[in-house]
């Protein structure tokens, strides 16, 4: 089965939805499809569906797209591979099919940077955003003691979500020091909406201990997490908890872009001022071009949607984009992971969780390819999505290639794919 759309958008988070909305409103009524592997649109930040969010922009976008007769939603659908130029093989719960397009917009978002430390594989230890997503999806956290740790404003949002759902947030552990935090806070004057958001979170979380210049060194427990040890001002602090939600910021999802041949720069998809990648007819918007938050994702999505339709008016949005790129730069400077985190992993600390490969085995390897050949690091179900980022931080390695299928695929989805005949 093959479908065709003028514009195909991969990712139904803020950037993807904004791109679809911008494209749907242009003249010519081009056919538009949005693919997302989740059953509901919204991405991680609007998880649970845009219609249920407090953010008015989410509801407005969703209402507009629902009423548009030229936009098709394809939820629960994963991209497996490119079969030829202008065509992707995708798979949902029922079948695999090919989708052809004239313009492709990548809005694949970001994922958490998870770094290894003793005990990080214990049940009860999750990513910060991971536990937030579980709680939003109904996972029971009421009455549970939770330590939220790592770095970045996401920690405050996670703590607020958990508190709202009845969890007892024992502490927020932020690795950035007070000078960096003070500079970032002062810079919020340039983005009043962010300043208001930060003030509201501060009020909501005012009774929760906020430990700056601190980081988790060890998670403890026999079969389940029972406590964490925190390095704070030259001393060790033990905190009892049922869950540790620990994440060191976000990193762009670039697997699909890399598989398509898009140029990657500083870990993100390289784009020109019009959100176009190095591959013809492929654009990228949102966190894939660099982590900057929902406001930057929305404006980049609108630019990409307009450009995909040939609309020159996208240039009117460049100033707004520059404004939010400034916020993204300040965010990156303030919350860059500190070098001490590289020393947390012990010889027996697992780095590649899928294949149970320890730090001792990996630190002797000269690079990513050698590590894969000798230890199977990065060859498990996640295909290096977790350990690839960790080894980049620990050893300076970068995964050298993206294997297809990009997402786990049923055997029938691949073997029934007919080869294209040359004409």
Outline:
Helix content is 31%, strand content 23%. It is built from 13 helices and 21 strands.
Largest beta-sheet characterization: 7 strands, mixed
What fraction of residues sit in β-strands? Answer: 15-25%
What gap, in angstroms, lies between the N and C termini?
20 Å
**Structural class label:** alpha/beta
Radius of gyration from the alpha-carbon trace, in angstroms: 22 Å
Quaternary class: single chain
Low-confidence segments, given as residue ranges, are none
Determine the mean pLDDT.
Answer: 93
Q: Estimate percent helicity.
A: 25-40%
Q: Characterize the overall form.
A: globular
With helices defined by DSSP (H or I, 4 residues minimum), what is the helix count? 13
Tell me how many strands there are: 21
What characteristics describe this protein?
423 residues, alpha/beta, seven-stranded mixed β-sheet, five-stranded parallel β-sheet, 31% helix
Protein topology:
Blueprint lengths: L1 E9 L3 H11 L7 E4 L20 H12 L3 E4 L3 E7 L2 E5 L4 E11 L3 E3 L12 E2 L1 H9 L8 E6 L3 H11 L3 E7 L3 H10 L4 H13 L5 E2 L2 E7 L6 E6 L2 E6 L2 E5 L2 E3 L2 H6 L3 E2 L2 E2 L12 E3 L9 H15 L9 H17 L15 E3 L4 E2 H4 L5 H8 L11 H9 L15 H5 L8
Parallel strand pairs: 1-2, 1-6, 2-3, 6-19, 8-15, 9-10, 9-15, 10-11
Antiparallel strand pairs: 4-5, 5-6, 7-16, 12-13, 13-14, 17-18, 20-21
């Amino acid at each position: 089965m093959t479908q065709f759309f003028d514009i195909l958008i991969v990712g139904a988070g803020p950037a993807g939805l904004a791109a679809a909305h911008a494209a749907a409103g242009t003249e010519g009524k081009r056919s538009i499809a949005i693919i997302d592997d989740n059953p509901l649109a919204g991405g991680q930040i609007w998880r649970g569906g845009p219609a249920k969010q407090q953010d008015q922009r989410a509801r407005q976008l969703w209402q507009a797209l629902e009423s548009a007769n030229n936009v098709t939603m394809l939820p629960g659908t994963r991209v497996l591979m490119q079969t030829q130029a202008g065509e992707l093989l995708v798979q949902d719960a029922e079948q695999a099919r090919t989708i052809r397009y004239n313009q492709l917009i990548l809005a694949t978002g970001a994922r958490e940077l998870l770094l290894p430390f003793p005990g990080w594989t214990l049940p009860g230890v999750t990513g910060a955003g991971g536990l937030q997503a579980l709680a939003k999806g109904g996972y029971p956290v009421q009455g549970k003691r939770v330590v939220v740790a790592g770095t970045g404003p996401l920690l405050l949002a996670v703590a607020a979500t958990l508190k709202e759902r009845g969890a007892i947030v024992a502490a927020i552990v932020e690795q950035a020091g007070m000078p960096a935090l003070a500079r970032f806070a002062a810079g919020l004057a340039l983005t009043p909406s962010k300043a208001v958001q930060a003030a509201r979170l501060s009020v909501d979380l005012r009774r929760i201990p906020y430990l700056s210049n601190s980081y988790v060194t060890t998670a403890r427990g026999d079969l389940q997490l029972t406590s964490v040890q925190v390095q704070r001002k030259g001393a060790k602090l033990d905190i009892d908890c049922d869950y540790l939600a620990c994440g060191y910021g976000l990193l762009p999802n670039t697997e699909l872009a890399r598989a398509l041949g898009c140029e990657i720069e500083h870990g993100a998809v390289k784009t020109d001022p019009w959100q176009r990648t190095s591959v013809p007819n492929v654009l990228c918007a949102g966190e894939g071009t660099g982590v900057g938050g929902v406001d930057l994702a929305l404006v980049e999505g609108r630019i990409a949607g307009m450009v995909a339709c040939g609309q020159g008016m996208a240039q009117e949005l460049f100033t707004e984009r520059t404004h939010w790129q400034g916020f993204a730069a300040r965010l990156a400077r303030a919350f860059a992971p500190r070098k001490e985190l590289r020393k947390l992993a012990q010889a027996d600390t697992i780095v590649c969780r899928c294949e149970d490969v320890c730090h001792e085995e990996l630190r002797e390897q000269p690079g990513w390819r050698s590590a894969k050949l000798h230890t199977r690091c990065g060859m498990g179900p996640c295909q290096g999505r977790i350990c690839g980022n960790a080894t980049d931080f620990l050893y300076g390695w970068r995964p050298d290639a993206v294997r297809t299928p990009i997402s786990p695929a049923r055997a029938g989805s691949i073997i029934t794919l007919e080869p294209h005949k040359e004409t």
